[in-house]
Amino acid sequence: MYVENVGDFLKTHGIKPSYQRVKIYEFLMNTIEHPTVENIYNALNGDIPTLSKTTVYNTLKTFIEKEIAMVITIDENETRFDADTNLHGHFKCEVCHSVYDFDVKIEDVGEESLEGFEIKEK
């Protein structure tokens, strides 16, 4: 997903576009990594020294409530985030631990369509 002006985009969704919120959304929108709070904090803390993990968490919570981001729970110990709120699936490679997107019609997902992977949750 691409948004030309993140500040205006946040405003249209009822979110005050603070510098930190804009930077967090830009990062989330421009990565395919499905980052954790820790990933986002580590990536932005050098440029925003006043940033805290609590701010990242609370900002992501707001984005989810306003439906401009989604939470991805791959396993019970890891929560990741995605700015792409269009219908799509995710899977995690248990070898490299990367999380991948795939297009999906949920009624069409079956074991045979993801050869080499195991569906743990639909």
Task: Describe what you observe in this structure.
With 122 residues, the protein is of the alpha+beta class. The protein has a single domain, classed as Winged helix-like DNA-binding domain superfamily/Winged helix DNA-binding domain (Arc Repressor Mutant, subunit A), CATH 1.10.10. It is 32% helix and 16% strand. It has four helices and four strands; from the N terminus they run H-H-H-H-E-E-E-E. It has a two-stranded antiparallel sheet with strand order 1-2. The protein has a two-stranded antiparallel ribbon with strand order 3-4. Helix 2 crosses helix 4 and helix 3 packs across helix 4. The protein is globular, with a radius of gyration of 16 Å. The model has no long low-confidence stretch (mean pLDDT 84).
What is this structure's SSE topology?
Blueprint: H1 6-12, H2 19-29, H3 37-44, H4 53-65, E1 70-75, E2 78-82, E3 89-92, E4 99-102
Antiparallel strand pairs: 1-2, 3-4
Helix pairs in contact: 2-4, 3-4
Q: What's the alpha carbon Rg, rounded to whole Å?
A: 16 Å
Spatial strand order of the main sheet: 1-2
- Structural class of the secondary elements? alpha+beta
| Total number of distinct structural domains | 1
Q: What is the annotated CATH architecture?
A: Orthogonal Bundle
Query: pLDDT under 50 segments (min length 5)?
Result: none
Proportion of strand residues: 15-25%
Q: Distance between termini?
A: 23 Å
Looking at the structure, the CATH topology is Arc Repressor Mutant, subunit A
Instruction: Give the biggest sheet.
Output: 2 strands, antiparallel
> Helical segment tally?
4
- Mean of residue pLDDT values: 84
- Label the overall shape: globular
CATH level-4 homologous superfamily:
Winged helix-like DNA-binding domain superfamily/Winged helix DNA-binding domain
Regarding CATH, which class? Mainly Alpha
Binned, the helix content reads 25-40%
Please write the string of helix (H) and strand (E) elements. Answer: HHHHEEEE
How many beta-strand elements?
A: 4
